[in-house]
Amino acid sequence: MNLHTHVPALIDGFGRKVDYIRLSITDRCDYRCIYCMPQDMRFLPKDEVLSLEEYYRLVKIFVSLGVRKVRITGGEPLVRKNALWLFNELGELPGLKDLVVTTNGSQLEHQASALRQAGVRRVNVSLDSLDATRFHNITRVGQLDKVLRGIEAAKKAGFDNVKLNTLLMKGINDDEAIPLVAYAIAQGLDISFIEEMPLGQVQRLHHSTYVSNEETLKLLRSRYDLISSVESTGGPARYWRVPNTNTKVGFISPHSHNFCESCNRVRITCKGELYLCLGQESKVDLAPLLKQFPNDDIPLRNAIIESIRAKPKGHDFNPRRNEPAVIRFMSQTGG
Ligand code: SAM
Ligand code: SF4
Fold first, then answer.
1. How far is the centre of ligand 2, averaged over its atoms, from the C-alpha of 324 (Å)?
2. pTM of the full predicted structure?
3. 216 CB within 6 A, ligand 1
4. Is the pLDDT of residue 207 over 70?
5. Topology at the third CATH level for domain 20-333
6. Could you tell me which residues are beta bridge partners of residue 227?
7. Is 330 in the pocket of ligand 1 (CB under 6 A)?
8. How big is the chain by its Cα radius of gyration, in Å?
9. 32, 123, 139, 167: which to mutate for ligand 1, most atoms within 8 A of CB?
């Protein structure tokens, strides 16, 4: 491998360029969202989870191979002890253009400004309900007012963008699409709706509460004159503008659209497994190489380049099927 070649190193077998990684820095979370994990979720023993230094090393290698965007996620990334150290290091990493984070917002009130100073450009905050009781029922433990204060702090911290992520479930919060968009408009934020994916064994029947983004879009169009937008943030969302506002409404639709064709990302779990596709089992464990070659990046680089070549063509979700397509939790793979 010629390291000075101008051809991007991370090209898969279908010609797709991988320049975006999503990195889960913990499987732990202070919430227990009903679609994400069971109430009695068992977390990984701490020694199976990589150190922050190991995440940094991995990101550095990926960036040297052409990755330009890193999303830090989890579990809840902001409950990982000393996570700020990693954000600060990554914020200074040459070549990394876009450092972003996905959070449940529970810690944002106190961390938003430090994250911004570290170089985080954008923040996605998950928010499924504006009703405190419902919010508590969906997250099983969360406090809505804390998250709303976190969103306020994120707005003040001056990120390039603060976006809400919402997952609607039939009979649980699907009547909140319009109120949540109204809240986003009032706050000057973007909002994206994510379709529920059948991941992990969460002790509920995903298909029974599945709401398609087509349904949500139809409902929203009964209230707003949404204008289709070609804008992209490098992710799989399709956007609509709400006229005369600063708000874009996005739809992340793994079921309704085939977003695999333009997939540019891979995921790294908190254990150091490289998952090539959210909906497939194909993975490569990078942890042994990290440990075995603490001072030599070449074996890791080669393993990463080889793995990307084998990235699957696409996923195979069927939301109405009763079983998870993949028996692993979003909190481990990184949503
Ligand atoms: N804890 C952070 C949060 O909630 O934003 C980051 C990790 S969480 C796994 C990332 C995103 O995954 C959240 O927006 C959540 O709604 C979404 N998610 C979790 N389980 C999901 C599922 N089964 N289907 C679709 N999205 C899911
Ligand atoms: Fe935690 Fe995020 Fe999963 Fe909710 S969706 S349980 S906040 S990791």
1. 17
2. 0.91
3. no
4. no
5. TIM Barrel (3.20.20)
6. 241
7. yes
8. 19
9. 167
